[in-house]
């Protein structure tokens, strides 16, 4: 008698598409590279002695210090122009937190197996890895500062280096895979354009500025 046909999903496994093979290969490379680059993932890692320094970098890109610092600046500012910039920075940071949390909740990619869950102030979605919220925030804040603060060239270079170091530190600490960080940086870069498009000004949102 003729053999029963295989279920469709089994046929797909036996005859994977080119796209499926390419994605699987990229995923394997991503996991391999992330494992090799996680040189500060633990005290016993290759660069374990640099782990405390990397954790300081981690805190510098965390959302809580940026939110608290921005709110404090709003209360202390006595200039309408400064309040406008700081209010939009606060809007950008809140938008970043919401967007990253939603994407993490939808994708639900687990953090690398070599990661130690000793991060600074986490919430429920922080158990997921994609995208890197630190990388997203670093790219967003970097573009924001470069566009709205008048800085000397050395300081502008330092801001860009800080954003890159924050992203690199996520992989070195074993917090994220390489693609988590790359997509996070891209998301933060694009998110700034959204903030610019929705820019809050005294003319467009007078009620907000009346609060300050």
UniProtKB/TrEMBL annotation:
Gene3D superfamilies: Phosphatidic acid phosphatase type 2/haloperoxidase. InterPro entries: PAP2/HPO, PAP2/HPO_sf. SUPFAM superfamilies: Acid phosphatase/Vanadium-dependent haloperoxidase. Pfam families: PAP2. Its EC number is 3.6.1.68. PANTHER family: POLYISOPRENOID DIPHOSPHATE_PHOSPHATE PHOSPHOHYDROLASE PLPP6, SPHINGOSINE-1-PHOSPHATE PHOSPHOHYDROLASE. This is Polyisoprenoid diphosphate/phosphate phosphohydrolase PLPP6. It comes from Aramus guarauna (Limpkin). The lineage of its organism: Eukaryota, Metazoa, Chordata, Craniata, Vertebrata.
């Amino acid at each position: 008698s003729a053999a029963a046909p295989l279920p469709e999903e089994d046929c797909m496994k036996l005859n994977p598409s080119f796209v499926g093979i390419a994605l699987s290969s990229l995923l394997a490379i991503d996991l391999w590279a992330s494992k090799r680059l996680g040189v500060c993932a633990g005290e016993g890692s290759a660069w374990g002695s640099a782990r405390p320094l990397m954790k300081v970098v981690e805190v510098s890109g965390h959302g809580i210090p940026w939110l608290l610092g921005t709110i404090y600046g709003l209360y202390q500012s006595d200039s309408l122009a400064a309040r406008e910039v700081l209010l939009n920075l606060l809007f950008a940071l809140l938008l970043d937190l919401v967007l990253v949390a939603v994407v993490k909740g939808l994708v639900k990619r687990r953090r690398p197996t070599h990661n130690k869950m000793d991060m600074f102030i986490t919430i429920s979605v922080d158990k997921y890895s994609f995208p890197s919220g630190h990388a997203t925030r670093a790219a967003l804040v970097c573009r924001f500062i470069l566009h709205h603060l008048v800085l000397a060239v050395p300081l502008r270079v330092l801001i860009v280096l800080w954003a890159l170091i924050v992203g690199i530190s996520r992989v070195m600490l074993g917090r994220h895979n390489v693609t988590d960080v790359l997509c996070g940086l891209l998301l933060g870069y694009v998110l700034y354009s959204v903030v610019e498009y929705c820019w809050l000004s005294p003319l467009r949102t007078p009620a907000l500025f009346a609060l300050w």
